[in-house]
Design a protein that fits this description.
It is a single chain. The protein has 15 helices and 10 strands. With 367 residues, the protein is of the alpha/beta class. It has one domain: TIM Barrel, CATH 3.20.20. Strands 1, 2, 3, 4, 5, 6, 7, 8, 9 and 10 form a 10-stranded parallel β-sheet that branches. The longest helix is centred in the last third of the chain and has 23 residues. It binds S-adenosyl-L-homocysteine and iron/sulfur cluster. The site of iron/sulfur cluster has 10 residues, from loops.
């Protein structure tokens, strides 16, 4: 191992150059040392309990047209669906019975009043059917302050909104002209101000993205004082404008996975006490990708609760795993994967990040 890397891994505070050096590692021994350091910080700061967030992929209707995403408005090959209220409640009951601490409602973006009311009703019902026990995270894109407030009042307390990249110029190349980086940033600030536990993140390995961009993303997360991070490798989808952006995907996907794992490790080392998700996109590249994510410093997993009949409709990227597994199978398989690496599942707990608790001096996170 290069002495320079050894030195950086002993530091408590990392500079921008340090972040870049760590993200650029290619040597397997150095990479192993990076993951080891991140894992030690994870053990110290958040422990080795993995928290489950049951994921409901509510709808693939979307008003946006992001160039990377398989369910973008412009993709006419997709059959659109929206789950019914009862279907969502059924999935939520499963999560509650299985003692997941919380659920995530994710969907393509819609801002119409009918949708806003639908979500408001859903949040209220989830609270009811779970005796107020299930935590509720929303991941429903950019909304007005009034909408975010209505959903918060109804009982949602966490919100995931990825900035996708903190480089405004790069953001522009990944979205049509009517998508606005500043608006997304402002939405994050609004969520924070309203009292949500805010999660953000980026796609890793985007076309045109440099290592310096990724280092700036890590600094951005810290500056925004977020409680949760959800990041994953960019994976091309065949029916999108970025389909051919990584030629020879099969040859490059291993690199793409390793870069994403290094990013998780670096975020753990730099931000220390936040929750970091080991996302499904990691598993789309390697069967054991999510375990690798946990070993690189992540501590959250989002088991899919979506009914199998809808899963094929929610393909943001190609090769999405577990398309034919129902929620029970997902849950059993995940628990085995977690115990296999010597960690445990934090059943029945919200599992708020220590960062959120210390930042807000809040005591509403634990039941
Ligand atoms: N519509 C909401 C939530 C659903 S999309 C929103 O955009 O916030 C959730 C995430 O999927 C996006 O934030 C994006 O980071 C990720 N995603 C979309 N297409 C992807 C791709 N091709 N590869 C990897 N991640 C992708
Ligand atoms: Fe819609 Fe989200 Fe996909 Fe963009 S990333 S097209 S907002 S679902």
């Amino acid at each position: 191992m290069r002495p320079a890397i050894e030195k950086i891994l002993q530091k408590d505070e990392l500079s921008r150059d340090d972040l870049i050096t760590l993200l650029d590692i290619t040597d397997p021994a150095e990479e192993a040392a990076l993951f080891k350091r991140a894992y030690a910080i994870k053990q110290r700061e958040v422990g080795t309990k993995v928290y489950f967030r049951g994921l409901v992929e509510l709808s693939n209707l979307c008003i946006k047209n992001c160039f990377y995403c398989g369910i973008r408005r412009g993709n006419t090959a997709v059959t659109r669906y929206t789950m019914s209220e009862d279907e969502v409640v059924e999935a939520v009951r499963f999560a509650h019975a299985a003692r997941y601490g919380s659920v995530v409602i994710q969907s393509g973006e819609r801002q119409d009043e009918e949708f806003v009311c639908f979500i408001e009703r859903l949040v209220t019902r989830i609270k009811e059917v779970s005796n107020n026990e299930l935590g509720i995270t929303l991941s429903l894109g950019e909304q007005s302050e009034a909408t975010y407030r209505r959903w918060y009042v109804a009982g949602a307390h966490r919100y995931l909104l990825r900035i996708e990249t903190s480089n405004a110029a790069l953001y522009k190349t990944l979205h049509p002209d009517d998508h606005d980086f500043e608006a997304r940033l402002e939405a994050l600030r609004t969520l924070y101000r309203l009292g949500y536990q805010v999660g953000t993140g980026v796609m890793i390995g985007l076309p045109g993205q440099t290592t310096a961009d990724l280092a700036d993303d890590v600094a951005f997360f810290k500056k925004m004082d977020v409680a949760m991070i959800g990041m994953g490798p960019f994976i091309p989808h065949h029916d999108t404008p970025l389909a051919a952006s990584i030629p020879d995907w099969q040859e490059h996907k291993e690199q793409q996975l390793r870069r994403a794992l290094r990013m998780i490790a670096v975020v753990r080392i730099h931000l220390k006490d936040v929750n970091i998700a080991s996302t499904t996109a990691l598993q789309a590249i390697d069967e054991t990708g999510r375990e690798m994510g946990l070993l690189a410093g992540a501590n959250i997993i989002m088991p899919n609760l979506t009914d199998t009949s809808y899963r094929t409709g929610y393909q943001l990227y190609d090769d999405k795993p577990c398309m034919d597994e129902n929620a029970t199978m997902c849950s059993a398989c995940l628990e085995r994967r977690i115990t296999d690496i010597g960690e445990t599942v934090g059943y029945g707990q919200w599992g708020d990040s220590p960062h959120f608790k210390s930042a807000k001096k809040s005591n509403n996170g634990e039941k």
